[in-house]
Amino acid sequence: MDAFIRFTNQTQGRDRLFRATQYTCMLLRYLLEPKADNEKVVMKLKKLESSVSTGRKYRIYVYL
């Protein structure tokens, strides 16, 4: 647990975590979109992906 905390306290570590979350959402959305019964889940994944993407962009500008 200490290693995870140290990792996320670093700017690069946080960016990697955000990027992994963003790409996971993209992958899940890609896999679930063809199925009509998963519309709500797909919309939630789109929103989460968008939020994470915005958060990553904001963090980059803050640290520059």
TrEMBL record:
Keyword hit for Protein biosynthesis: no
Alphabetized UniProt keyword annotations: Membrane, Peroxisome, Peroxisome biogenesis
Cellular localisation: Peroxisome membrane
One Gene Ontology term, aspect cellular component: peroxisomal membrane
InterPro entries referenced in this protein's UniProt entry, alphabetically: PEX11 (IPR008733)
Leader sequence residues: none
Gene Ontology BP terms: peroxisome fission
PANTHER family membership: PEROXISOMAL BIOGENESIS FACTOR 11, PEROXISOMAL MEMBRANE PROTEIN 11A
Name of the featured protein: Peroxisomal biogenesis factor 11 alpha
